[in-house]
Specification:
The protein is an alpha/beta fold and about 60 residues long. It has two helices and three strands; from the N terminus they run βαβαβ. Strands 2-1-3 form a three-stranded parallel sheet, with helices on both faces. The radius of gyration is 11 Å and the shape is globular. The model has no long low-confidence stretch (mean pLDDT about 95).
C-alpha cells in the first residue's frame, strides 16, 4: 500500500483526485489532505508519506520552495 497526501489550495481539486484514486486503485491510501502549504510541510514531516500529490502553484509558496 502506498501512503499518500494531497496538497492543493483548491478543495475541488483535492476532492476530484481523492475520488479518482478511490475509484481506480486500492493500492493508494490518502493519509491526509492540505490546502495550506505551511500546514502541508508539518503534516508531511509528521506522516512521512510515500507519495505527495502536490499543486505547484499555491498562494503562500510554490511546490519548488
Amino acid at each position: 500500500m502506498i501512503k499518500a497526501v494531497i496538497v492543493d489550495d483548491e478543495s475541488g481539486a483535492i476532492n476530484g483526485l481523492t475520488y479518482e484514486l478511490q475509484k481506480f486503485t486500492d493500492k493508494i491510501k490518502v493519509l491526509d489532505t492540505f490546502t495550506s502549504a505551511n500546514e502541508a510541510i508539518s503534516g508531511i514531516n509528521y506522516l512521512k508519506p510515500d507519495c505527495v500529490f502536490l499543486d505547484i502553484e499555491m498562494p503562500e509558496m510554490n511546490g519548488f520552495t
